[in-house]
Design a protein that fits this description.
The protein is built from 2 helices and 19 strands. The chain is mainly β. It has a single domain (35-247), classed as Jelly Rolls (Sandwich), CATH 2.60.120. The strands form 4 sheets. Strands 1, 5, 6, 8, 13, 14, 15 and 19 form an 8-stranded antiparallel β-sheet that branches. Strands 4-7-16-9-10-11-12 form a 7-stranded antiparallel β-sheet, with no helix packed on it. A hairpin with a 2-residue loop joins strand 14 and strand 15. The longest helix is centred in the N-terminal third of the chain and has 25 residues, at 3-27. The radius of gyration is 22 Å and the shape is globular.
Length: 249
């Protein structure tokens, strides 16, 4: 083959290959797992659950930049303003089978007082669950109760499923329950868990509202202080690989 033909062949390969490479990058969009996704609350300046078309009542929550620096693509909750979102009661936010995955991004401003990421219970009951730090201010734990609040669903001590809190830094948090074991993840890494469900106990579908940025117990509200983004809820237990994927989005 002559040099001219060789150069022409190489040029032809480049013309064919380069668009293919760019095409792959353009079309290869990574998205969260869709199988079993029952609630998608992106908090990108709105307060809508995009799966069920439920818009929360907004109590003093304001838009803020997300972890990628995109303006108005996360929501800021100021404890001083008692800021929270109220989605009301909806069966999609209850886990009567005790099988679920909750995934979200948070950036905590401070832990001077107890704070709640999300919950489906009120300060006086009925009770279902709450992702908060009221038992130990340095960690989030998945507080899980039967409706009366007399006992937990998974295990004895919710602190067994704790997630360390790092102030002023975006963290990905996930709670995964398969009907027997409950696991907690921080930034894609398995952190803790409860190794067995309490025999005969399960979550109830009560009329308690699903709230973001508020929860509580013992007659008190625990308002979040900081930013929250991209809340996803599944009716199945995601795998560790899927949790890792969510932490990289």
């Amino acid at each position: 083959m002559t040099l001219k033909k060789l150069l022409r062949t190489v040029a032809g390969l480049c013309i064919f290959t380069i668009p293919m490479l760019f095409s792959c990058k353009k079309d290869d969009v990574v998205t969260p797992p869709q199988d079993g996704l029952v609630a998608n609350i992106s908090l990108d300046g709105t307060t809508v659950d995009e799966i069920n078309n439920i818009t929360a009542i907004n109590h003093n929550v304001t838009p803020i930049a997300n972890r990628l620096g995109e303006s108005d693509h996360a929501m800021y909750f100021n404890r001083v303003d008692s800021a929270y979102l109220d989605f009301g009661d909806a069966a999609v936010f209850s886990f009567s089978q005790s099988i679920f995955t909750i995934s979200c991004w948070v950036m905590v401003t401070d832990t001077n007082q107890p704070i709640t990421i999300l919950s489906k219970r009120t300060s006086m009951g009925p009770f279902e669950y709450s992702l908060d730090n009221h038992m130990n201010k340095t960690v989030f734990n998945f507080d899980n109760w039967i409706a009366s609040g007399s006992t937990t669903v998974y295990g004895i001590d919710p602190l067994d499923a704790s997630i360390p809190i790092v102030n002023n830094q975006w963290e990905h948090i996930a709670v995964v329950a398969d009907g027997i074991v409950l696991k907690t993840y921080s930034n894609g890494q398995l952190i803790g868990g409860i190794d067995s469900i309490k025999l005969g106990n399960s979550f109830s579908d009560t009329d308690a509202p699903f709230q973001i940025g508020n929860g509580g117990g013992y007659g008190k509200n625990y308002f979040f202080n900081g930013a929250i983004d991209d809340i996803l809820i599944y009716d199945r237990a995601l795998s560790e690989e899927e949790i890792k994927l969510l932490s990289e989005l």
